[in-house]
Amino acid sequence: MLNRVIPLQIRRLDASELGWANERYAEIDFLPSAETDLIAVALAGGTPAGLGRITRLTANSGELGGMYVFPTLRGSGIAKRLIDYLVAECGMKTLFCLPFEHLRDLYAAAGFLPQPVDDTVPPKVLRKYAWCNSHYTERVLLMVRRGPPNLSKS
Fold first, then answer.
1. Tens digit of pLDDT for each residue in 72-119?
2. What are phi and psi of 93, to 5 degrees?
3. What is the pTM of this model?
4. What percent of the chain is helix, strand and coil (3-state, nearest 5)?
5. Which of 21, 76, 90, 118 has its CA at a distance of 20 to 30 angstroms from the CA of residue 67?
6. 3-state SS class at 30
7. What whole-number distance in Å separates Cα of residue 129 and Cα of residue 123?
8. Using CA of residue 6, residue 10, residue 11, residue 12, what is the dihedral sign?
9. Is 140 helix (H, G, I), strand (E, B) or coil?
10. Residue 21: which of 51, 43, 44, 47 has the closest Cα?
């Protein structure tokens, strides 16, 4: 990818592609997606380059997760574009996320703030947070983004 601009497209994953997405998640030891998740795929020059999803918690809240940029394209801004797309498409006012600690700044730039473990966090998110921190060697953070959804497509 030396000094060459590759066109990037982000779109909703088609239901027929769910098996493929879950195979990618299994390869990196991420939990699988469900048919009810809002899943986005990034395509660089027409080739899959990354994935992300939002799992609905309530009518107006969800959990952003499953963010995965394929190794050959990391550092090219794809994760930010996936986050922006998912936030805009979901229309939810509150989004929780559980990023690995080294990704704190990426999520902070998208409006996510550290969230204390308290009774404002849905039990499903608290269970996943505990599971992630017992399962992965790298620390996982609890973050939240509250407010009107970002409706701009960047």
1. 888 888 999 999 999 999 999 999 999 999 999 999 999 999 999 999
2. -80, -30
3. 0.89
4. 35, 30, 40
5. 118
6. coil
7. 10
8. positive
9. strand
10. 51
CATH number assigned to the domain with residue range 8-146, chosen from the 4 options 3.40.50.1820, 3.90.550.10, 3.40.640.10, 3.40.630.30? 3.40.630.30
| Rounded distance between C-alpha atoms, residue 108 and residue 134, angstroms | 24
Beta strand pairing call for 8-12 and 38-44: antiparallel
Block residue for tokens 């797309």: 85
Residue that the structure tokens 């805009």 belong to: 88
List of residues 6+ apart from 62 with CB closer than 8 A: 38, 54, 55, 56, 90, 92, 94, 95, 96
Surface-to-core class of residue 68, CB atoms within 10 Å of its CB (0-12 exposed, 13-18 middle, 19+ buried): buried
In the numeric block, the tokens 């995965």 are attached to: 68
Cβ(39)–Cβ(67) under 8 Å? Answer: no
